[in-house]
Write the structure tokens for this entry.
Amino acid sequence: MQNKTFVAVAVGLGLISLSACGSVESKSSADSRTVTLVSHNSWAVSKNVQRDFEKQSGYKLRVLDDGDAGQAVNKAILTKDNPQGDVFFGVDNTLLSRALDNGLFQPYTAKGLDKVGAPYQLDKDEHRVTPVDYGDICVNYDKAWFSKHKLTPPQTFADLAEPQYKNLLVTENAATSSPGLGFLLGSAAQFGDDGWQDYWKKLKANGVKVVDGWEQAYSQEFSGSTGGKKAGGDRPLVVSYASSPPAEVLYAKKRPGTAPTGVATATCFRQIEFAGLLGNARNPKGAKAFIDFLISKEFQEDMPLNMYVYPVVRGAEVPAEFTEYGPAARHPETMAPGRIAANRDQWVKSWTSLVLK
């Protein structure tokens, strides 16, 4: 969802990945001792936590970064008969039905699943995926820019279409990016089936800029991010996450007293991320051990300051500095999985025609 050099939700860490076993070993031998995780480019874990998994399980962890979440899911579906790995992490509630309908995963009931909150278990009857984290996709704003221009930052979806915010917003492509899709779904939840297209017509007329993925939007186009400043980004509004501001604070060379970015709190859409055992995985036993680890208290408490997301396991503690600068939205937009499944593809098609053409 976020993090990698200032990723999905802010700035990042590089992916921690280990190569497979040495070339002198047979492939089957290497496969049996290596678990390959396929993920979006926001995957991150502390080195000591990864070492604990490897020590406790006896498996080496190898990580394949397949780009933005939307791209990673699409690629996993295309390669499902001969998957790149054993576990996929990063499919969220906006894309879940696409993955399930295409038979991407095989069922597995993870150990410790009883400690995961019921609202996050969207496939509880079949257990094809395991909830891992949640967060909120929201518009972020550059505090310094708005202060300099003596302009009040927008707070709602409707605000973004007002003339004073013309040519200020950058968002991700809803067809290729999970935050972009989440923002589209949030607008559909806000304005309804009959109103979201008119809303996007207004945004387009108001100069919204669309880029392929989160990394480009946040770290290049957004004037308020560390990466955006270096890249000369000139858009003071970006679709990102409610947890991007704490990342800006915690990864700063000199930590500021307050976050340099803010969140338009009435533009948020709740995102839940899942992991699943890939069909035809070469190492299903290792994959199951890794999925169990993802909902262990150790990993769940490691996530907030690595991937800037919230744990789904009851009792997992969240660091104070994370919640201080990036509390979860109190009233995010949500959408039932069935409604997403029934409308997503048509909405994306209509959105693409309306906004990109």
